[in-house]
Amino acid sequence: MDISGSVPQAKVGEPEAPAGPLAYEGVWRFTVPALEESVPQARRAVRDLLGRQGVPADRDLVYSLLLIVSELVTNSVRHAALLSPEVAVEVAIGRAWVRVAVEDNHPYRPKALEADFGQTGGRGLLLVREITREAGGVCDVEHTSTGGKVIWAALPLAGPAAPAPVPSPGPAH
Questions:
Q1: pLDDT tens digit string along 93-105?
Q2: Strand 138-143 to strand 97-104: parallel, antiparallel, or no bridges (unpaired)?
């Protein structure tokens, strides 16, 4: 998987793009037990990673990413724990985007439900999709090679106006 995205070729008279990856680029993956207390742990781990890597993300983008991680890990804990005692969280940071993905071993592929304002739950994926859309990003749910699923969201670092190619997570581990 290419996490750097495509870099346009410099034209005559323009500065060339950096040859190698930027200091903050990379892919990090960790697992947490499928327990409620893992939700804030996963959120803190992602927040700390973004800070430690020096990712050029503004406060709103970091908040959006952390809310997405919270919602996705919560969904796995609540709905997949029986078949997936661990949940994997992956953070991929490219030149112009950040992608967070949560993977579990449950085969059910959730769909965003219509908002039912009489219900107190069931809107996590809708929230993830709306946050992602407002930030100019993309999100999806994919099956893994082991029969589970991965739900991911990729947000541009420069905001919705910046065109940034965003790769899908590719084949899951």
A1: 999 999 999 999 9
A2: unpaired
